[in-house]
């Protein structure tokens, strides 16, 4: 719909989109229309980035299902998955922050005085997108060549995968509309938007190609039956004398889960035992096709097809989380916040009402990009860390310490065998993205991806699922996760909020901004190193228990909550419930934003675990009395220990049901 709206606004006759020229042609309301158009363009671009990356990841997941037996292929597939996610993060970041300040995109109409040249920016993103698509297309070809099939059949299977090249054609067409060497700030509309829509549509169709086989077989079966009803011969098999043969198949389309199959000639060809009775003799034959290192199982495809129904429900369950993310973005009032921060950034000092002030550090990481990024965030947290807004100081200290249990849960879930190669396997990426964009906006999106792509709780506890899938492995989560979290998260927060010198608080506020990234990298690196030494792993077993890893951060979170209840001069409602009316000053605006951020983070987290618990209940793995007891205790635990500790209790409760 966004593309259609833009095409209607620009018209069919306007070939090159230069916003300043476009605005000049409008007599009345042009400026307002231009502002709305730029906001619409930004939203459309971000949706395109997420959609095209989701399609790429779905194809890579299919590759993993089909060719995962090859270790070399798995390594290339995982690397390419990481490249896709990095491309998404970088592209999203560049789009959002293409102007300085962000609001200059629609207020200054994307002027190159404040913004990157939009044509050059999108040309770069589309070229890299095309390169990734080409690599994804080429990835399975070598594995197909190793199949023990005739050359013709290999070409047939390869062509099915290479039909995805149509996406590359659409991408090349879009590049031609984005390439304007003489005017890098110009973009051709509506053609570039139309090709983006066509590119997405073709990508979806191509990603679903392997699933069309069963549908085509049903279609061909219906055509064959129609021909037979007209007395027409379908093939020599049907015109031959079948009376002396009685072929009975142990596994057919009515029992799809029973036997493996192979993709041959575009069809799901059964590989099963077949009994042939001829002249009273029984012959037992097996028509399996040896595929060297590659074997496509019918159960894999049937599993994917069987998930279509549950997938619809998963998407439906994700709608409330999507609304939470949207509400958080709206509540933060980014435009207003950026405008209020500018005087502090330009003067280089943070000043407050009682005459106090502090100089903003010019350099901390000694990387220009990082220093410019986090400099603005130190202003965002200044009313809280420097305590010239006492309400925000109490609330933020409690809220940020509650993130300790949350990050621990994310990392533990990423260490579960069943969550490998799903979005839940990549908590560091989403945690760091939340640090940059807004944790309250990113957390629901993370849970949406987990709900859609990760195994449900009922799947993990099903008898057909190996117990290994439920296990949290030490090779993915370091036994030193607890000291890592205490050192890089809790310690830094205590100094950022409690140091006696304001300059020390400001320093540790800078340091804490990179904590999600450093915690994730340290955890992964140490987990890999420790797994190489079995003796060291055994020595660290005492602190590697998920109960210990989560229990200590939860206890710290609960202690800070109780301390806040007893010592804070402000009521709980004042500290944690935001005002409904919009705020115009920096301090109340930041206070309201952090309060809403906390509600969105922990509201979506409880909703996510609640979905898992409901899934266990609906599939008979949890009794009604257990649910009643949980719902009775949870409000009491939340009121007494806070959201971080109650979330830890809820996750631990669900974990106990998975392993009983």
Automatic annotation (TrEMBL):
This is Rhodopsin domain-containing protein. It is a multi-pass membrane protein. Residues 40-216 form the Rhodopsin domain. GO terms for cellular component: membrane. Keywords: Membrane, Transmembrane, Transmembrane helix. The chain crosses the membrane at residues 40-63, 75-97, 121-142, 154-173, 193-212, 311-334, 429-453, 480-498, 510-532, 544-566, 627-651. Belongs to the SAT4 family. It comes from the Eukaryota. Coiled coil: none annotated. It is found in: Membrane. Pfam families: Fung_rhodopsin. It comes from Clonostachys solani.
């Amino acid at each position: 719909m966004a593309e259609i709206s833009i095409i209607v606004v620009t018209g069919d006759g306007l070939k090159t989109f230069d916003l300043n020229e476009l605005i000049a042609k409008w007599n009345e309301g042009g400026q307002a229309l231009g502002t709305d158009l730029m906001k619409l363009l930004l939203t459309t671009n971000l949706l395109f980035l997420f959609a095209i990356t989701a399609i790429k990841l779905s194809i890579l997941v299919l590759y993993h299902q089909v060719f995962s037996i090859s270790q070399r292929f798995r390594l290339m597939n995982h690397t390419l998955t990481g490249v896709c996610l990095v491309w998404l993060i970088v592209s999203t970041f560049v789009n959002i922050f293409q102007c300085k300040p962000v609001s200059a995109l629609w207020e200054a109409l994307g002027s190159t005085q404040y913004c990157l040249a939009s044509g050059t920016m999108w040309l770069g993103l589309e070229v890299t997108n095309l390169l990734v698509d080409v690599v994804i297309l080429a990835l399975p070809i070598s594995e197909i060549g190793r199949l023990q099939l005739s050359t013709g059949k290999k070409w047939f299977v390869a062509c099915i995968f290479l039909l995805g090249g149509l996406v590359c054609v659409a991408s090349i067409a879009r590049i031609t509309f984005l390439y304007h060497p003489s005017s890098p700030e110009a973009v051709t509309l509506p053609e570039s938007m139309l090709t983006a829509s066509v590119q997405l549509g073709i990508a979806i169709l191509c990603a679903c190609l392997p699933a069309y086989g069963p549908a085509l077989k049903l279609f061909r079966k219906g055509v064959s039956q129609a021909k037979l009803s007209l007395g027409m011969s379908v093939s020599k098999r049907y015109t031959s004398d079948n009376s002396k043969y009685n072929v009975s198949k142990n596994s057919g389309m009515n029992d799809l889960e029973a036997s493996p199959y192979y993709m041959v000639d575009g069809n799901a060809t059964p590989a099963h035992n077949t009994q042939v009775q001829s002249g009273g003799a029984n012959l037992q034959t097996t028509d399996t096709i040896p595929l060297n290192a590659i074997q496509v199982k019918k159960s894999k495809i049937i599993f994917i097809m069987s998930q279509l129904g549950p997938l619809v429900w998963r998407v439906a369950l994700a709608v409330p989380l999507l609304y939470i993310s949207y509400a958080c973005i709206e509540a933060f009032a980014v435009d207003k916040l950026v405008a209020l921060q500018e005087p502090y950034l330009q003067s280089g000092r943070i000043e407050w009402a009682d005459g106090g002030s502090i100089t903003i550090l010019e350099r901390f990481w000694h990387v220009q990009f990082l220093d410019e990024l986090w400099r603005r965030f130190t202003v965002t947290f200044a009313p809280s860390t420097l305590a010239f807004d006492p309400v925000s100081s109490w609330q933020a200290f409690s809220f940020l310490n509650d993130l300790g249990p949350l990050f621990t849960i994310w990392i533990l879930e990423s260490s579960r065998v069943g969550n490998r190669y799903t979005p839940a396997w990549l908590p560091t990426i989403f945690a760091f993205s939340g640090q940059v964009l807004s944790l309250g906006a990113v957390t629901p999106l993370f849970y949406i991806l987990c709900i859609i792509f990760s195994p449900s709780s009922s799947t993990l506890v099903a008898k057909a699922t190996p117990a290994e899938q439920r296990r949290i492995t030490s090779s993915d989560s370091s036994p030193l996760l607890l000291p890592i979290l205490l050192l890089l998260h809790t310690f830094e927060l205590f100094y950022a909020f409690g140091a006696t010198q304001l300059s020390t608080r400001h320093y540790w506020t800078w340091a804490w901004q990179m904590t999600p990234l450093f915690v994730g990298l340290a955890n992964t690196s140490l987990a890999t190193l420790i797994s190489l030494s079995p003796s060291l792993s055994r020595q660290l077993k005492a602190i590697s228990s998920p109960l210990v890893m989560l229990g200590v951060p939860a206890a710290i979170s609960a202690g800070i909550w109780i301390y806040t209840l007893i010592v804070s001069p402000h009521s709980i409602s004042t500290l944690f419930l935001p005002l409904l009316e919009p705020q115009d000053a920096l301090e109340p605006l930041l206070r309201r934003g952090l309060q809403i951020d906390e509600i969105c983070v922990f509201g979506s987290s409880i909703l996510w675990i609640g979905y898992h618990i409901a899934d266990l209940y609906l599939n008979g793995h949890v009794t009604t009395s257990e649910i009643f007891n949980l719902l009775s205790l949870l409000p009491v635990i939340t009121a007494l220990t806070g959201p971080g500790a109650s979330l830890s209790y809820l996750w631990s409760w669900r974990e106990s049901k998975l392993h009983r």
